[in-house]
Amino acid sequence: MSWFTRFTHTLRSRRLDDELREEFDDHLARRQEQFQSQGLPADEARRRARQAFGNTTALHERTRDTRVWLALAQTLDDIRYALRGLRRNAVFALTAIGSLTVAIAAITAVYAVTDAALFRPLPVPMPDRLVTLASTDVSIDDAARGGGQTFSYPMFEQLRAAAESSARLTLIDSPSRVEAQTAVPNAPYEEVIRQDVAPNFFQVVGVAPALGRLLTDSDDGARSSRPAVVLSYDYWARRFGQDQGVLGQGIILAGRTYFVVGVAREGFFGVEPGKFVDLWLPVTLGDPGILTNADYRPFHLIGRLAPRASALALAERLQPVYAQAQHDRAAAAGGVPEAIRSHIRDAKILVHGGANGVSAFRDTFSRPLWVLLAIASGLLLVACANVASLLLARATARAPEIALRVSLGAPRGRLMKHLLTESAVIAALASILGSALAYAAAPALVGLVSTRANPIRVHLALDWHLLGFTIGLCWLSTLFFGWLPAWQASGAAPMPALRRSKGQGGRLRLSRMFVGAQIAFAFCLVTAGSAFFFSLRNLATVPTGFDANGVTVLTISNGERQWNRQLAFVQRIQPTVAALPQIQGVSTAWTSLFSGAGRAQRVALPGQPLSVRQQTFYRVSPGHFATLHTPLLQGRDLLVSDNDDEPVATVVNVTFAAQLFGSDDVLGREFVRDDGVRHRVVGLSADSHYADLRGGPEGIAYMPMKPPRAFTMYVRSTLPPAVVAGIVDREGRALEPSARVSNVTTLETLVTETMLQERLLAGLGSVVAVLGLGLASVGLFGLLSYIVVRRTKEFGIRAALGAGRGSLHGLVLKELAGLVGGGLALGILSGLAAVHLARALLFDLAPQDPRIIGTALGVFALATLAAAGLPAVRAGAIDPVVALRDE
Amino acid sequence: MTPAQSPQIALDMLVLAVLTHLGPSHGYGITNAIQELSREALRVDEGSLYPALHRMAEAGWISATWTITDNKRRARVYRITRTGAKHLSDERARWTSFSGGVARILRHA
């Protein structure tokens, strides 16, 4: 076990040193006694003894080296030296560690979110055996929204039967935010995330219960007497405090009571990263029409492959069944153009890997997240270059000491190790602090992308992935910023340094290179920030077609089941609220703008084939256009007397008219929906956006209101939303005791939330750009100051010979230009390339738009001139007498 | 395996032999013993002895303890271990064959 004793000796070297010293002292004393016994006086004896012994210190060290683990002892010494050096140079330490910490925190936070959302496999057994199904049957409109991944229930049953032994398939609906109530008297309403799934969902995915049981095939509604619901572990802990007695508890959703049969195991949140499901219900308990309607296709299909099956084999097995169903569908689609029909017929089924789950969040955010990761890496590069130039300055200060070591025979490798240890200590400290900062920042980042309509929760775990990432980053950055200065310092010839001469051209060249690198990276970041800023501005100034200021949007629901009584409720509450003071307008609609919900159908002129694109149909009450301030250009608004009797009275907007009729002259003309219903145009409204600001205004056909159980109300008022909600709640309850108001927000908020991605990129992009620019400016400032100090004598001579302040300033600016020039050129090129790469994320902005580079150059010029300001002023203020006296 | 040529290996062997002959002793005692037993032919200076002593202690051939010797002084006393005794007999055999070979060649020279 000698390596173990060596290890302990290395750590407790003081004890070893004491023992050795005692042993040598004993030896010397005995030798001294021997000489004394031969007749020498005491001090002579001692001198002779020492002489005979030899070099005590060298012997001590040599002996010690046999007892310790040499490499470890050296490393410990290096670390102690580095820490001492950092303590003595507090400013250097704070700057270096500070800039690295910020950069590492940024990149770690983004990586944590990216990992949780994109990389991490689901916490189920053998996630690589999971698959998701998709198809190539995607309409033009669906493709834009990332469709092609949903199926109908009858299709699911056919595919499940066809898969047979090669895979088990199951079905999930998208999680949605709903209101729930526990079945006790006076229970409050709470918001939960609910997901409808096929009864075999938990078996296929591979989740075990933590309490009770999970859904099984017997919960399909036909055989079970009590509708079952399964809670998530998180919800059970949060809401019921892990009470074992929750089994059998009733929960009311949408007016129907479900009974808790069990709790899923801890750590399972569903199969969609970013959404934490609270309740799972069997989809078969819903509206029976869903189970037989082949045109209603909202479900995702996932499955688990059998042990020896492959995804390809599964796709081949499913294709015949799918092709047959598609063929039938194409044949049944009457007025649809042939191009679309053949597209439907030729659709193929695809089987993708499902280890990461199904995620709409991933589809929306994967590209922005990668961009953020790239930006954070850029910041890290700037920080590394900054620290490298700081280290270079330190190496200069230590040059005589290092030269001494070289002359004493230290090998270059040993010196490199010694110098790199300092870099490693800085990187390690920055990594620890940066990780801690990231731990706080990552949830904030997730909070930025989470909206009311689409709450995102991500399970950010401090797991080995993240730890490995941070450690790897630490080592990479150490090598990156520490290597070059260490190489240069350890290779310097000792004599000039020992002589303390100023021959340090090498150091200056290297410094220029580092500052140039910082300038390039920083400019790249500023360009990216500028591009995202303009992209956001473009999106924010898109004319929405309505006035979003001062409009409260809320949802009203009540216990009424019959739709005509519901309609009566709507028709009474609207004028009641509108009559109140300070309410400028009220209208209702079946759902809210920008909610993600919409109804799109194909239309045709009578006797003509159906259009290729789908149009949006929006059920609204009279007064919609007046409330939202969308101008009505021709004809009339909808009336209370309008209903679904054919031909249905409809108001269309300009885009719809142009797409279907090809002109503005549409009053009185009729058109047909793809399900055969006839419409007659009674009014023409101006364009407005319905679901997304990014494309052009959608073509919208406004139909008379037919309210669902929970419908939307728009209220234009100067009052704050909470007050408006209170008023509507009061009036609603007066008309119908079970009426309730929920989901209170403003139209402005809804519009802003659609710009989430752009806001995220612009916000974070500018923060990072400012940080990067700040770091680069500090580096520039440091180097310029050093150059001015170095040229003090020269400036003094010039001043003595009559040069004015202005010309001295000009000299400094010339230095600045020299420093910045190369880096700027590289920065412009890389900035343009980066913006070009990210062009898919820019709204209505060409990558080569001169405003981007122009703004970046402007901001950059300000920062660099500010950095050069103080050195220039100092140069101008050099007193020639003082400068020349310093010989 | 090269025979015991280098002074370091010979030193190891000498120290182990002295410890076997003399019993446990401290560094100073070993130095004197080598000098006396070889009749002044071999002299080991401290610069070689102490690193060797500590190295051998690490290798496990000798063990060291702090004991109170005569005149009430604390000294680090070394004693040979079983492993060391085995190593000594191996080295002795090797040295004998080596020096025997050298002697034979010199006889013919």
Q: Strand arrangement, largest sheet of chain A?
A: 3-4-9-6-8-7
Give helix % range of chain A. 40-55%
Rounded to an integer, what's the Rg of chain B over CA atoms? 15 Å
**Termini distance of chain A?**
62 Å
C-alpha Rg of chain A (nearest Å): 37 Å
Strand fraction of chain A: 5-15%
* Fraction of residues in helix of chain B: 55-70%
The end-to-end distance of chain B, rounded to whole angstroms, is: 26 Å
Q: Biggest interface and which pair forms it?
A: A-B, 23 and 18 residues
| Average pLDDT rating of chain B | 84
Q: Give the strand tally of chain A.
A: 22
Number of helices of chain A: 29
The CATH architecture term of chain B is Orthogonal Bundle
What is the count of distinct domains of chain A?
4
Provide an overview of this structure.
The complex is a heterodimer of chains A (about 900) and B (about 110). By secondary structure, chain A is α+β, with helices and mostly antiparallel strands. Chain A folds into four domains: about 1-70, no CATH class; about 125-360, no CATH class; about 365-540 and about 755-885, no CATH class; about 550-750, no CATH class. Helices cover about 55% and strands about 15% of the residues of chain A. Chain A is built from 29 helices and 22 strands. In chain A, the strands form four sheets. Chain A has a six-stranded mixed beta barrel. Chain A is elongated. Chain A starts with a helix and ends with a helix. Chain B has about 110 residues and is α+β, with helices and mostly antiparallel strands. Chain B has one domain (about 5-110): Winged helix-like DNA-binding domain superfamily/Winged helix DNA-binding domain (Arc Repressor Mutant, subunit A), CATH 1.10.10.10. Helices cover about 60% and strands about 15% of the residues of chain B. Chain B has four helices and three strands. Chain B has helices at about 5-20, 25-35, 45-60, 80-109, and strands spanning about 25, 60-70, 75-80. Chain B has a three-stranded antiparallel sheet. Chain B is globular and about 55 Å long. Mean pLDDT of chain B is about 85; it is low at about 1-5. The interface of A and B includes residues 5, 19, 30 and 63 of A.
